[in-house]
Amino acid sequence: MKARPSIQRQKSSTPVAAAQKDLRSPLAAFIIAIILAAAVFAIYSPALNFQFILDDHHFLNDPRLQSSGHVSEYFTKYVWAQNAGGPASFYRPFFVLWLRLSFILSDLSSRGWHLLSVTKHVLVAFLLGLLVWKLLRDRVAALIAGTLFALHPAQTESVAWVTVPDPVMSAAVLGTLLLYLNYAEHSPDTARDSPKFRKRNVVNSRASTSNWWLMLSAITCLAALMAKETAIVLPAIIFVMVLFVPLNKSEAANARNYRNSELKDRVLSALSETMPFLIATAIYLICRWRALNGTITASTQHLYWHTVMLSWPATLWFYGKVMLWPVRSRAFADSNLADHFSGNVFFTGLGVFVAFVILVWACVWAWRKAQRDLSPREANGVKRALVLGVSILVLPILPALNLNALNSGDFLHGRYTYLPLAGLMILLAIAWHLVRKNRTLLLASLGLIAVAFSVLTIKQEGEWKDDLTVFTVAHQNAPHNGPVAQSLSRAHVQVALGLDETGQCGEAVPIFQQAIQQYPHDWFAWAGLGECYFKLNDLAKGEQAMHRAAELSGEPRVKEEWQEMREKMGLSPAP
User: Fold this and answer.
1) What global pTM score does this model have?
2) Where are the alpha helices (DSSP H) in 51-151?
3) Whole-angstrom distance, CA of residue 505 vs CA of residue 519
C-alpha cells in the first residue's frame, strides 16, 4: 500500500531537518568561499612566473589581437586565418574576443595573462558552485563541487596554458544553465501556484521576465558555441533535462502526471523548450559555414571508421583515468589506435562498460532515494542535478571521439575533461547531499582528497613553465608520440636561438645539428645553424645551411636573408 501524501511529507521532514543542521549561514558560506578562492590563487601563484607556451606565441603575434579594428574579423574568419596555410578547422570568435580583451588588459605581460587565466578558472568554479546550490539548495555541497573542481590536477593544463578555450566555453555553458533555471523559476506556471499571483497582470509580468531569462540563456548558449565547438552538446543537455525532470513547481506538484504522460508529448515539450537553443546552434553553424569557406567540419586525418570505433574503448579509458586517477600529468599521450579487434580492445571495452554500469546504478540509487526521502520539490532538484551531472560528464567527451577531426598522432589531451569534470563534481555533490550518516567522516575524506589534489596540482603545474619543460615531460610520458617528439626538438631549437642571441653560438651549433639529424626538413633549425656558422666566421657552411633553410621554408624573408649572406660574402645573387 502506498503511503498517503501527508505521511510522505512527514517522512521527508526528518532528512530535511538533518540537512538544515549541515547548512552553514550565507555569511559563513561566503567567507569559506573567499578563503577557498584565495587558496586556489595561492596554489596557482607559481604560474604567474611562467612563460608563454605552445599556441600562446601564435595568438600573441596575431595582428588582429594587437590592434583595434579587427573585431568583425573574429566573426567572419576562422581562428588561424592570419597564418598562411593555417588549418580552416576552428571557428571560435568569442574566444578570440576574450584573447583581445586579455591583450588590452595585459599586453605582452605573461604575469598578467596568467593572472587572468587563474581568475577565469576560479570564476568557472564559482559558477559550478552556484549551479549546485541552485539545484540542491545545499551550500556545503556547492562548496565541495566548486573546490574539488578548482583543485583537480587535470585542470593545470587549462590554467597554466593561457590560450586554452575550455574555461571560457565552460563558463558560458554553466552560465547558460543557470539562466535557464532562472527562466524555469520565473515561468507563468510557477506564478499560478500561489493565489497572490493569480491576477492576470502579475502573471503576464512574470511571463515577460521569464522570456527575458530564456533569451539571455539562448544568447549565452551562442557565446559558448562561439568559444569552442564542444558546446554543440549544450542543446542536448537541456533537452535531456527537460525530458526527464519537470521544470517548475507546477510540474513538480503534478510530477506523477508528468511521468505518466505519453512519451510523444514529453518529447514534444522538451523540443519546444529546447527550440531557442537549437536556433542559437543554427545561427552558429551558419556563421561557421561562412567562416570555413563553405564547410562545417574539416578532417585533419583520414582514418577508417572501423579504426576510429575500435579505438573508442582505449580513448574513453584514458579520459576516465584523467578524471579519476590524476596522479600524474596526462596532458599528452601516445596514440592508442586499434586497426583490428584484439584482447586489449575487449578488456578495455569491458572496463568502460563496467564503469558505465556503476554510473547508471549510482544514479538509479540516488534517483530512488531522493524520491523516497525528500519532498517533491527537493527530489526534483536532485533529479535535475543527476541529469545535468551525467550529461555534462558524458556528452562533452563525445566530440573528442571523432578522431578524424583531431591532430594526427596527438589526439589525447587531459584538457578535454575540463567541462566533464564539472559534471563529475555535480554527482559528488549529490552524493554528499543524499548521504545522511557519517557525514563528518565523509567530509574529512573529501578534505583529504582536496589536500591530495592541491599537492598534485602544485607538482603538475610546474610542467607548464616553458616550452622546453612542457615537451620534455610530454616526451617522457608519451615517448612514441611523433608530434610531441618534433615539438621537443623545436623547443631545443628555441633554446639554441636564445644562445645565438647572447653570443654563445659555439654552444648553440651542436643543438641545431642534433635537431637537423632528427628532423632534416626543419628549416628553422637550418636557418639557426646558418646564422651561427656565419657569426663563427665559417662562411661557407653558413651559406649552405641558410640555402637549405630557404629551400625548405619557401618563405621570402628566409630567401632574403640567404641572399644578404651571399652578398656579404661577395658572391653573386643566386637565381
Assistant:
1) 0.88
2) 56-60, 63-66, 71-76, 93-106, 110-136, 139-151
3) 20
